[in-house]
Design brief:
With 279 residues, the protein is of the alpha/beta class. It has ten helices and nine strands.
Length: 279
């Protein structure tokens, strides 16, 4: 195992030991209860982040979305390619994908239920978003992506990762510093040691999950939102949140916006395969 891969696994193990997002290792469909939150209207206007992905697509492409969930990305790009292929082991996510697809009248899709390492699927472009954080053995995972893509691999990650977005909140209010999940720095190091030199493209749009209501909160609403993130009703925690609103939230004329939800940005990591296989 390369030095970068060892570091990647070490970061993963440390984050897992802090018991954040650790349920992804449990058997069963742990995404089922959340699946509807990841379903967006495929016919919505393409934002800048979707357009950045579309820049790399060709009309004849098979767009293979690994761990593509409810089709937040792939269904919105179905009109740019010949076919969308979803690989998604969560039945709850697949149900939301089908519902969104059928409601939009999209017909150029197929669905595979295997997890990626067990799949025989290939595509012209292989895309995945918010998946690599949860992969400990990253080198064979990336090798399979590369060797299964006829033309291009596209990996989207958030900086900070979704598992780390509340870190500032916890540090400011509780004084807790937890290990982070493997993200852009760790993944880039692995790719470089594998001999891959990807284009790393920051994407401009705000997080898709930030609602209009969350951009204009009153002080009481802001405190309530932070408490929901903590999953706590402790009075001492509530007082600590209320005392740190200016550090936790960004103020504007419209109200308060949660910094830990509005500041993260997606990064697109992409490279052409050129028909070269990795060992």
């Amino acid at each position: 195992m390369s030095e970068a891969a060892v570091r990647y696994a070490g970061v993963y193990d440390a984050a897992l030991s802090a018991d954040r997002f650790s349920d992804h290792q449990l058997p069963g469909d742990h995404w089922a209860d959340l699946a509807e939150l990841f379903r967006l209207d495929p016919t919505r206007p393409k934002d800048a982040n979707l357009l950045a992905v579309a820049d790399y697509l060709e009309p004849t492409d098979v767009f293979l979305d690994v761990g593509g969930g409810a089709g937040r990305v792939s269904l919105a790009l179905a009109d740019c390619v010949s076919e969308v292929a979803l690989i998604e082991p969560s039945a709850g996510m697949r149900e939301q994908f089908i519902a969104a697809r059928d409601e939009a009248g999209i017909t150029n899709t197929r669905i595979a239920t295997d997890w990626w390492m067990d799949s025989d699927e290939t595509g012209d472009v292989i895309h995945l978003s918010d998946v690599t954080y949860f992969v400990r053995d990253i080198v064979p995972f990336v090798t399979k992506l590369h060797n299964s893509a006829r033309r291009r691999v596209m990996i989207a990650v958030w900086r900070p990762t979704p598992g780390d977005m509340g870190s500032d909140l916890r540090e400011i209010v509780l004084g807790e510093t937890r290990p982070h999940w493997p993200g852009l720095p760790e993944l880039a190091g692995v790719l470089w040691e594998m001999g891959l030199l990807p284009e790393i493209r920051p994407l401009p749009d705000e997080p898709w999950w930030l609602t209009e209501e969350e951009r204009h909160l009153s002080g009481a609403e802001a405190t309530d939102l932070a408490m929901r993130w903590f999953g706590s009703e402790d009075d001492a925690v509530r007082q600590a949140v209320a005392s740190n609103l200016d550090r936790l939230f960004e103020r504007s004329e419209g109200g308060l916006t949660p910094g830990w939800l509005s500041r993260p940005r997606a990064v697109l990591i992409t490279w052409e395969t050129h028909g070269r296989r990795l060992d």
